[in-house]
Amino acid sequence: MRVKKPPKQQKCPACGDNPIIKTMEDSLAASEAARGPATCSINIPQEDISEGLCISCDEYDRIRHTGIDHILLDVRVKEQFDLCSLPGAINIPLHSLPHKMEELSQLSDGLRPIYCVCRRGVASVTATNLIAKGALEYSKIYSVKNVIGGYDSWRAKIDKTFPKY
Question: Is the domain covering 51-157 a CATH 3.40.50.1240 domain?
Answer without folding.
Answer: no
